[in-house]
């Protein structure tokens, strides 16, 4: 990082929008917000945006929480309490708290920032970086900041290239050859394509850079509008596009890749299928996301756990794991695992056979269970002999079965089986 980009990062406050439920994750978000969902063996989804900020040199961070925030807040307190005020560092947890008026909840993404203008002004950052707290990716935000300043933009929008037929799920931009945004539309039926490529579109990552003074002015105007939905993608950004000084920043220019990564990696793990696939992909011989890159670490709350242990070496009762990731505190006790991802503290008991299993922390899997292509929620007790993943009709009657055949198992579902 050059002196110039380092200065820009130190003059920036990152504001992370982490209040969303993530309803497409079904029962996984019944007791926690989507950014607090576990991912990759020991991290939570929000750790990626926060780690990107810290690794980029940004030391002022606010996290806006709302939906069932206790798990998220506890994680932030335990894992992200290393900021020191005497070094001009801070991480503020910002639940909707009626500071501006008597509304209990944030009305939209822009309103979440509006309700915290007093805190932002107290830190007086020159730039504000708005981030979504629910995506998996590695990005150097200092490069994005440098692009914003060099272009003289009112707003710079981080974007990814997606196949045009998939772009209707995003906010999509039409741009010219200089990256100026000509049009910004939310979830269009007929998405605009990229210059020179009719098969691809530029989709918003939910990342925006503003000068603080301008943003506060825009937010106060938006707060007084009776027709606004108080949302960045629906109100703030389209207005700036219409004014003619909004620019796009392609993710490929600032993504962080190691020698083990072949292309930019960004995932919205917002469905059961996407969540399962992104976790299982980590077990590949050379996964598209390199979590072992020590030059760009993913910071998180590191629990004190003993090493993983594999026990028993008898015929049909051998603790083994092939093409799998096993976190600390796990005991693979005479169980056979293939392409599995075990979060902290999982115990798989004798004679069980697990294939494509994503088990969240503290799951216990009973003897002789056979599980294939499942996500098991935290602290679930899988009963002895349970079979999942072999009979689609039976699976759908007992568990949450996705379009692609992945089953989500929660303790409530298990309790109903045993009732």
Automatic annotation (TrEMBL):
Its EC number is 2.7.7.27. It is an enzyme of class 2 (transferase). SUPFAM superfamilies: Nucleotide-diphospho-sugar transferases, Trimeric LpxA-like enzymes. Residues 306-409 form the Glucose-1-phosphate adenylyltransferase/Bifunctional protein GlmU-like C-terminal hexapeptide domain. Residues 14-283 form the Nucleotidyl transferase domain. One of its GO terms (biological process) is glycogen biosynthetic process. Keywords: ATP-binding, Carbohydrate metabolism, Glycogen biosynthesis, Glycogen metabolism, Nucleotide-binding, Nucleotidyltransferase, Transferase. Homotetramer. Belongs to the bacterial/plant glucose-1-phosphate adenylyltransferase family. PANTHER family: GLUCOSE-1-PHOSPHATE ADENYLYLTRANSFERASE, GLUCOSE-1-PHOSPHATE ADENYLYLTRANSFERASE-RELATED. This is Glucose-1-phosphate adenylyltransferase. It comes from Litoreibacter roseus. The lineage of its organism: Bacteria, Pseudomonadati, Pseudomonadota, Alphaproteobacteria, Rhodobacterales.
